[in-house]
Specification:
This protein is mostly helical. The protein contains 6 helices and 2 strands. It is elongated, with a radius of gyration of 17 Å. The C terminus is likely disordered.
Amino acid sequence: MAAARVLLAVVARSVAEVEDQVSLPQLRVLVMIATRGPLNLSAVADALAVHPSNATRTVERLVSAGFVDRRDAADDRRNVRLTLTKKGQRLVDSVFEHRRSAIEQVVERMPEHRRRALPGAFESFADAAGEAREDHFGAMYWTH
């Protein structure tokens, strides 16, 4: 549980860095689009476990703020395709970079033999939870 508290603190600090720009549900939508690729409103509502009208309002705020682009899907005009704008991608990148940096600072203080096992353990943990694969851990210099 101690490791979970540390990771939660890292996440909380990264969210605090952008809370003046987006709410937590809005950040969740941005991260979902960044990690899963283009989504539609139904997928957003399902992932957030909210009514579609709540998802629509959340996405509308992101579109208005310039973080998300909403377009009709090419194959079905009744469906919309949500993608990140450059501004949205920059915000998500800054959150991920903050998390990466904070985790790296902790990991640097670990013994090297424990450090080497960490990326595989994190990937297994994420796989078991059904999370989409990201290469954020593989990009950290401490994995080499």
